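User: Please fill in residues for this 266-position structure.
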């Protein structure tokens, strides 16, 4: 549609953007970030992961039930679990495989005094979820959708369906993952660790979610998205070891998209 008057006046139509500013972090979140039990290694990654801005963008706050899919080594767990301890509920959703489940339980047990009692609800690619439907305020996943895609489209679709079922109407799904530019070969999604924005939106939309916003918080324009060992070429993995190490350290961690989806209220 064209707007002749605007063109004649030399003006352009301002189209609303989904880029939404994040609110300020809560005091509880700020306290969790400053906790000296966080390792120096993990603190150093704040510069790339922007946890305060990211969690504020996903509207995470005390008093909520927050599910984290695949907490891995617990980088975000050590922020979320203490923030919600005594005022909210943190739920870890690791893969149901023996390795994934045992690793998550060991990480949580090591930090029980810090995290408190954390509920573990495994994700199964074949079995129905045991998490009570419609009870979560937030479901969060950080750099994990590419693993789901690499496991197969059916596994990824099942995960997003489980995320949708877990959330209350109006609840938010927050996704951070390595960005593959839309013009690049989609085959890279199966091996590089990078994903297209359209792929995540397709999965979320198929499950019933609506895109509510996106943020450049975790973007990195130095990342060209095309490395010998995929995203793992960059820090923190540095898969090539000492080969071009200084170059990759100067680039920093990957270019990431930060997408916020909502489960419709009706």
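Assistant: Residues filled in for all 266 positions:
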């Amino acid at each position: 549609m064209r707007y002749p008057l605007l063109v004649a006046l030399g003006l352009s139509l301002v189209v609303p953007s989904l880029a939404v500013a994040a609110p300020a972090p809560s005091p509880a979140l700020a306290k969790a970030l400053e906790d000296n039990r966080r390792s120096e290694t993990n603190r150093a990654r704040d510069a790339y992961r922007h946890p305060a801005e990211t969690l504020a963008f996903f509207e995470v706050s005390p008093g909520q039930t927050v599910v984290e899919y695949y907490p891995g080594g617990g980088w975000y767990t050590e922020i979320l679990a203490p923030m919600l301890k005594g005022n909210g509920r943190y739920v870890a959703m690791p893969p149901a495989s023996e390795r994934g489940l045992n690793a998550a339980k060991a990480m949580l047990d090591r930090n029980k005094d810090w995290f408190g009692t954390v509920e573990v609800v495994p994700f199964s690619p074949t079995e129905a979820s045991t998490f009570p439907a419609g009870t979560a305020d937030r479901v969060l996943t950080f750099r994990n959708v590419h693993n789901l895609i690499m496991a197969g489209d059916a596994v990824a679709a099942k995960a997003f369906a489980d995320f949708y079922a877990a959330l209350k109407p109006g609840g938010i799904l927050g996704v951070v993952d390595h960005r593959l530019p839309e013009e690049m070969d989609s085959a890279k999604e199966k091996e590089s660790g990078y994903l297209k924005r359209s792929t995540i939106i397709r999965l979320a939309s198929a499950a019933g979610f609506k895109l509510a916003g996106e943020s450049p918080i975790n973007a990195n324009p130095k990342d060209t998205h095309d490395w010998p060992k995929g995203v793992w070429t960059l820090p923190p993995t540095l898969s090539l070891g000492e080969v071009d190490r200084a170059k990759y350290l100067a680039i920093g961690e990957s270019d990431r998209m930060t997408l916020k989806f909502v489960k419709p209220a009706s």
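For context: Confidence is low (pLDDT under 50) at residues 1-17.
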